[in-house]
Design brief:
Blueprint lengths: L8 E4 L4 E5 L10 E4 L2 H9 L6 H17 L4 H12 L6 H11 L6 H26 L8 E4 L14 H10 L5 E5 L6 H12 L4 E4 L4 H6 L5 E4 L3 E3 L4 E4 L2 H10 L4 E4 L5 E2 L16 H4 E2 L2 E2 L12 E4 L6 E4 L2 E3 L3 H9 L2
Parallel strand pairs: 4-5, 4-7, 5-6, 7-10, 8-11, 10-15
Antiparallel strand pairs: 1-2, 2-3, 8-9, 9-14, 12-13, 15-16
Length: about 325
Amino acid sequence: MNAEPLRPVLYDEARDVVRVLDQRRLPADEVWLELASAEEVVQAIKNLTVRGAPAIGVAAAYGLAVEARRGAEAPRLREVAETLVHARPTAVNLAWAVRRMSRRLGLGAAAILREAHAIRDEDEAACRRIGALGAPLLPPRASVLTHCNAGALATAGYGTALGVVRAAVEAGNAISVFADETRPFLQGARLTAWELKRDGIPVTLLTDGMAGWLMARGEIACVVVGADRIAANGDVANKIGTYALAVLAAYHHLPFYVAAPWSTVDLQTADGAAIPIEERGDEEVLMLAGQRIAPVGVPARYPAFDVTPEALVTALITERGVVRRPFGPGLAALAAR
């Protein structure tokens, strides 16, 4: 394991800038960008410079902090908060972080920055607790399938789904990972594989259509994914392709685990049908590495997320505890803590 933890969103107080690792450039180049305004943070969230539900919440918190530190008053900060919260619609952590920050907007720049730091620190601590709770669920020497990137790059640090893997490895379990490439942004190929290789955890890349066959051959022990929003009944919104994996896992009688911080749980949303699903531009599907891969004139669809029904989920792993069906009462009980 790499001794130095990966933290993709930081605040440079000396220069009053938000520093983010540009995830569009990985794995070829490790480039850090300095964002000097909330507008730059909004663009970084929209264009996937920073991505992953917890990470964009942290970035938004620091976006408000940088504006406050540069002299913006409460009315301007409220406008900024409204812009940030609409940068991407599906991940509830973004709105959660902005709402939490909004309660500090009249208290001065120092208090606003302290709150942003608290959100970042609490997220990393939550990820480490998720890892500790989830690691015992993985069989010895398990081959774990994951989708998209739910690692340190998607959070303040350590990761959710990959946090479970990391904690298992730290506990002495010789886990290996199959990572779906996750078209069209290739988060698995570019980001998950990069993270795991960096940490010395064995990882093998799959195209998105290969998992079912490997499950049938007994080569996959379980599936562990992250989440962008978990509804009150346990339905889970995550990167497009997650639902298909859950169906495959159920057919092959494999555990399907969802790891996410409590800030991803949205008890105000009754079920998955009420979760807004972001549709991104079709050019992201029609192009690959700057090259067109489909005939001119052929359209494409890109729903960026899908919803996995709670009936296909084995357990939800949060820092407050592991919840199994029925998820509604279990989540309500954790909320009451």
